Amino acid sequence: MLLLKKIDVYLLPLCIFLFVSLGVTAGQLVRIKHEKHRKQGDQVCRQDMECVSKSEYCDINLEPQNQQKCSFGNELQMGFCCPINKVIRLNTERRILNDDDESNLDKILNIPLPEPIKPLPEEPECGQNIKSLPNILNVQNAKANDWPWMAVFLETTNYMNFCGGVLLNRRFVLTAAHCLKKFTKQDFVVRLGEYDFTTNNETQYIDYRVTDIRLHPDYDQATHANDIAIVRLNRPTIYNSFIRPICLPKTNMEVYKKNAVVAGWGRTVFAGEVSNVLQEVVIPIWEHDQCVSAFSQPIFKTNLCAASYEGGKDSCLGDSGGPLLMQRHDGRWTNVGIVSWGISCGELGIPGVYTKVTSYLKWIAVNAQDVI
Question: Does the predicted TM-score (pTM) go above 0.85?
């Protein structure tokens, strides 16, 4: 959570800020201007050609210098143009034909196989603490057991924290895709139960290796669309006063114009160090139209924006991957957003940008449980 002044775009921690230019490191939300790196003429194929996502879908050997780039599916994914009669179509891809032109075998092959999604079970212990919004007045230190679902990602080279996350259940942690894009499983550990890095084991934290990194397949580094990821811990965790899972929101949960809490170990001064103690602050979630108007960069329906309207309260560098939390009517807390990116920290009229969790509930259900 932060107070701060103007800077370019970054990946987030909570803080109180003053700004200076800062180099982007892996896992830090790149609050820098998003460049498309695409030429206007590279977007559309000729009428006799079709845009394909991968070279193996075109039965022709085009030299790289002869490949015309194009936008596949949407402007976020680049492909290249292939002559229509050379496109290799998958069996699952439905041909553009009248029903009368298809054989019975074609119709059977083209029926998409159902992929039943087993809902992610809500853990009985999820979202439970003794915290309430009126207790959080400003940017402040949390208490040791306030947010027991908080996870922190530590580089194994020097054990510096670079991102946050939340525990979904005994085996899986939710975070931002940009945090892990440049890391392998051997490069970091996930710590649960941490609170104050300067005090040894006051909460009996536990470090876990990771057996799988599951980035959203449509994550786009240029726009940070679909900035969501899940990691699988190498063994199930325990639950206690300092380690407990978060609840997930319902699809229809009302979030706009509501107050939420962002928590993390991010920078408290823009050019300073990350916080040693877990920080918390209450901020409002902006209307979507307000968010879109605040940026020249693309804001998607799968994003949320949150920050104080008067400036000074925000997430910042180092908070990336951490949660935007709302309290349900039953008193339990749910994670409605994932700290993704922003322009400066705490700047008046420029909120932090979050991944909207309700847009990814099915993806989370598929990737946050071991289905046998």
Answer: no
